Amino acid sequence: MKKLVLIGLALSFNNAYAQWINKRIDNGFDNAYNICYNDSKEDKSVMIKLENVYGDIAFYLANGYFCEDDVIVDISFLVNGEYKKYVATGTRSTDNSCLFLIDDMRQDITLLNFKKSSVMKIRINDSVCGEMIYTFSMAGSTSAWNFIIK
Predict the structure, then answer these.
(1) Rounded CA gap, 40 and 111, in Å?
(2) In the chain, what are the helix, strand and coil shares in percent, each to the nearest 5?
(3) How far apart are CA 37 and CA 18, in angstroms?
(4) Element (H or E) spanning 144, and its range?
(5) From the first residue on, what is the mean pLDDT of each consecutive set of 10 residues in the chain (150 residues)?
(6) Are 53 and 46 contacting, i.e. CB atoms less than 8 angstroms apart?
């Protein structure tokens, strides 16, 4: 009985701090495509996504609320106990729910650290809505990358 309780606790802890999820989307009408996402530790509805958009690998934050059209974003990857820091300009979607961070990850300097990191933190510096910080487990990030570039 103790083993079952311990296994249950271990599984629930693993789900409490998510990792990359790979999905094949097929709506029955359009061409099927791959998408990868990862829920935020702070707010499970906010997620980062990788999506192949006509050959470019878009990287964006979804299901949040962003006020400014263009927002300065700090991205920090924890690699071997050291944070690798980058600054990007995020562009808000028309419905304010997405912040597009990188148009094509294949061409971006963050790619190596994206694949090697254990944790990623994103700080949104929105002067109207305020500062928001989201933390993501990067477990499975290399697998997600390989899945999305297929």
Answers:
(1) 19
(2) 20, 45, 35
(3) 10
(4) helix 141-148
(5) 42 57 92 93 96 93 94 97 97 96 94 97 94 96 94
(6) no
Phi, psi (rounded to 5 degrees) for 145 = -60, -45
* Positive or negative torsion for Cα 92, 105, 16, 74: negative
State the amino acid at position 29 in one-letter form: F
Whole-number Å distance between alpha carbons of 47 and 19: 11
The 3-state DSSP class for residue 105 equals: helix
Terminal CA-CA length for the chain: 44
pLDDT attached to residue 116: 97
pTM recorded for the entire structure: 0.83
Rounded to whole angstroms, the Cα distance separating 150 from 147 reads 6
Q: How many other C-beta atoms can be found within 10 angstroms of the C-beta atom of residue 13? A: 9
Describe the strand order of the beta sheet including 99-102 as a list of residue ranges: 21-25, 33-39, 47-53, 56-62, 99-102, 82-92, 70-79, 119-126, 130-137
Q: Residue 13: its pLDDT value, please? A: 43
Give the integer Cα–Cα distance in Å for 117 and 144.
13
Q: What integer pLDDT is reported at residue 17 of this predicted model? A: 54
User: Can you tell me which residue has the tokens 């962003």?
Assistant: 66
